[in-house]
Amino acid sequence: MRPIKVAILGFGTVGSGVYELIETKQDLLEQLLGGPVRVDAVLVKDVGKSRTIHDDVLVTDDFSEILRLPELDVVIEAIVNVEPGYTYLRRAIEAGLYVVTANKELFANKGFELRQLAEKRGVKVCFEATVAGGVPIIGALKQLLRFNQVVKVEAILNGTMNYILTKMREDQVSLEEALLQAQRLGYAEADPANDVEGFDVLFKVVILLELLTGRKIDWDLVRCSGISDITPADISQASVRGERIKHVGSLVVDDQGQVEAEVRPVSVGESHKLYAIEGVDNAIVVTGDLTGDLVFQGPGAGKYPTASIMIEDLVSIFQSIKKAAVSR
What is the set of active-site residues? Predict the structure, then answer.
């Protein structure tokens, strides 16, 4: 079997993690796929910056160069913002390439269109890493959708906010102080607006809604608020009641496929399944009409958890191709 040839778009925390795991886990990948996986190209902003990448890998800031590579199989995208990622992925799909992405803002805005285009072109777009980092909730929901109806989801989907709320309660500090600590530890960006104002969770809820309903979602359906107005007094009052404030994305789907969704801070009691979720962890409570409540918990971000989930998508794509070839 010839190598599976990969291009990585972006070489930040997640993109470099994907590269490292492909390089260090070749034996396992060959066992899973029957042949090697090879990184042929990496797309970066600054080609002059020093990076630990093999000399035979194309390092470029021009996506057209990547599309001209012979026998390229898949593009793994780990950059931020809707553009230029959307243009890159659209061009990749039109060229018949498979796509794996971790870009939640891009996928919330353009994922429905990309999935439709991929179906027309006979390729796949995999997006497990867009919602909960190292927690494979997309795959779990796809399994449930085969027979169960998912009627409700409640989730902590932003580790930064969960960390801030945890520190505010444990250390009795202001949101600003907890945010600074999160930034020092690398949990929060220099500009934390997407996290603190709830937009990051909004992106993820939209992705889940489109998966569950199979249609393009009007963002106006999702009420959204963040944690910027939460004070130490709010945290203290919740504690007196035996509760904890969590930032929760929730959605309900009825029998006709109608949805209600919101993103907001919620005060939950000890019996609530999200009560004990602390620090940077994510957790998703999925209620199926037949299964009842299922809880998925784990790291919502981080170099290797997120990168490993992207490689799981890669493995899934090419195992399914191999299976289809054998069955013919």
Answer: 204
Would you tell me which CATH number, out of the four given (3.40.50.720, 3.40.630.10, 3.90.79.10, 3.40.50.2000), belongs to the domain 4-133+304-327? Answer: 3.40.50.720
pTM: 0.95
> Angle at Cα 294 formed by Cα 293 and Cα 298, nearest 5°?
140
Q: Does domain 137-300 have CATH number 3.90.850.10?
A: no
pLDDT along the chain (328 residues), means of 10: 94 96 97 96 96 96 97 97 97 98 97 97 97 93 90 96 97 97 90 95 97 92 96 97 98 87 98 96 96 93 91 96 77
Q: What is the pLDDT of residue 168?
A: 98
- Model pLDDT, residue 257: 76
State the Cα angle at 309 between 22 and 6, rounded to 5°.
40
* Distance (Å, whole) CA 97 – CA 118: 9
What's the CA gap between 74 and 124, in Å, rounded? 10
Q: Is 31 exposed, middle or buried (0-12, 13-18, 19+ CB in 10 A)?
A: exposed
Residues in the chain: 328
Question: E strands, the chain, where?
Answer: 4-9, 37-43, 58-60, 74-77, 98-101, 125-126, 150-156, 222-224, 243-253, 259-269, 281-288, 292-299
CB-CB contact of 178 with 163 (8 Å): yes
Q: Measured between alpha carbons, how far is 63 from 44 in angstroms, rounded to an integer?
A: 9
